[in-house]
Amino acid sequence: MTAPRLLCVSNGHGEDAIALRILLALRDRHPNLDLAALPLVGEGTAFRTHGIAPIAATKTLPSGGFVYLDGRQLARDLKGGLVQLTIAQLQAMRTWAQQGGAVLAVGDLIPAGFARWSGCPYAFVGTAKSAYYLRNEAGRLPEIPWYAGWAGSIYLPWERWLMGGRCRLVVVRDELTAAELRQCGVRSLVVGNPMMDGLAPTPLGETLRSPDPAALTLVLLPGSRPPEAYQNWDRILRAVASVLPTFAPRSVHLLGAIAPSLDLAPLCDALRRHGWTDVPATNSIFIHANGTLRLTQTAYADCLHLADAAIAMAGTATEQVVGLGKPAFTLPGDGPQFVPAFARLQTRLLGPSVQLLNHPAEVGAAIQATLADAQRLAHIRENGQRRLGEPGAAAAIAAALSDRLLEMGG
Questions:
Q1: DSSP summary character for residue 4
Q2: 299 alpha-carbon distance from chain centroid
Q3: Model confidence over 119-166: pLDDT tens digits?
Q4: Hey, what domains does the chain have and what are their CATH numbers?
Q5: 382: helix, coil or strand?
Q6: Rounded to whole angstroms, how far apart are CA atoms 35 and 338?
Q7: What residue ranges in 146-300 does DSSP mark as E strands?
Q8: Rounded Cα distance, 326 and 216, in Å
Q9: Nearest to 319 by CA among 188, 197, 237
Q10: What is the mean pLDDT of residues 319-338?
Q11: Fewer CB in a 10 Å sphere around the end CB: N or C, the chain?
Q12: Which of 231, 227, 238 is closest to 262 using CA atoms?
């Protein structure tokens, strides 16, 4: 008997991570499933690491997948070979589809359009859009223009068209978005967000805990893409410079949760430029005034759990902080991802759990005011759970894909 085939199409670093969690959950259910990937943006490293081969050549374009944030990025991507890459990807998909199978699209209308074009039955996991971009449970957000949401849903008519026909399953981020789609005649599944899976603390976390039980603990999240993350790190350190005197003489324990894709050397050099001193006999601990800062590339989830709050200039990582019920304080950067437009969208998506500040000097006072407000902290915890959901989404999506797309049952 021929093994069932599934091709996953995704279009971004965060989307790849979500897709991978779903695929691994599917593999657990069906070890004989023939899995392949078509990452439209980036190198597809996450898939290769787990033995899921891309069906087409991969390439990292200048925008990193964030063309929609800055029109100038489109020109750079076109010059970098966007058209030729897209044509090659479409051809590879058509070749793959000739042998039969199903397609899982993760991201926005681009992978959904690829899935429709394949001619195969498909499912769509919409990670890029949420009704929270335009409104919350109380109604339209005040900064949103009157014409926004004209289609009755954050998903526009042509996007909803992609949710019909051969599309067997639609998964959206939250109940607010699903309610909009139901009013437009589209049924969708809400099971939480796979990015909240795999974040359980480990014993390693205890080695990162401050020896001072009264210390304020903050996690620093500069993002994962070089060289942007190095620029973000410098801005975060300027924010830290406002935190230390605000809380003095209280100890401030800082955890730099650094992606394995980044080189620690530039981060350490930046710390020294900002007045931090290496602790002897360590490679990653620094001290300055009433602060201690530790860098780690192996205990990401533990850093999130230990932290009272985050200073973040990241996409997925900021959402995970919020999902764990913690407040996040963000600063716009120079991009290509964490530009002002992205930061504003993220703030709307995540609501009161995120404060977008214009200048690093504002961060210390903002953290102090938030952590002193017990009612506000309780609201932040409830908001994070409502918008991101509980762990277990990847397994739930895999079960639905098994039943509705692959028709393999439990």
A1: P
A2: 17
A3: 999 999 999 899 999 999 999 999 898 888 889 999 999 999 999 999
A4: 5-197+391-404 (3.40.50.2000), 205-388 (3.40.50.2000)
A5: helix
A6: 32
A7: 167-171, 216-221, 252-257, 277-278, 285-288, 291-296
A8: 13
A9: 197
A10: 91
A11: N
A12: 227
122 pairs with which residues across the strands? 103, 167
Q: How many CA atoms lie within 13 A of 225 on its CB side?
A: 24
- The pLDDT tens digits for 84-132 are 778 888 889 999 999 999 999 999 999 999 999 999 999 999 998 999 9
Identify the residue whose tokens are 């004989």.
Answer: 32
d(CA 146, CA 243): 39
For 152, what's the count of Cα atoms within 13 Å in the CB-facing half-sphere? 12
Q: Which token pair is 230?
A: 């190095």
CA–centroid distance for 6 within its chain: 23
- Cα distances (Å, whole numbers) of residue 236 to 26, 221, 266: 38, 8, 14
- Which of 102, 97, 93 has its CA nearest to residue 33? 102
Residue type, 127: T
Residue 291 zone, left/alpha/beta (φ > 0; ψ -120 to 50; rest)? beta
Give the closest residue to 54 by CA, choosing from 84, 93, 14: 93
Q: What is the dihedral of CA 113, 130, 343, 107, to 10 degrees?
A: -30
Structure tokens at 335: 């991009």
User: Is the separation of the CB atoms in 30 and 406 below 8 Å?
Assistant: yes
Residue 20, both tokens: 């991978």
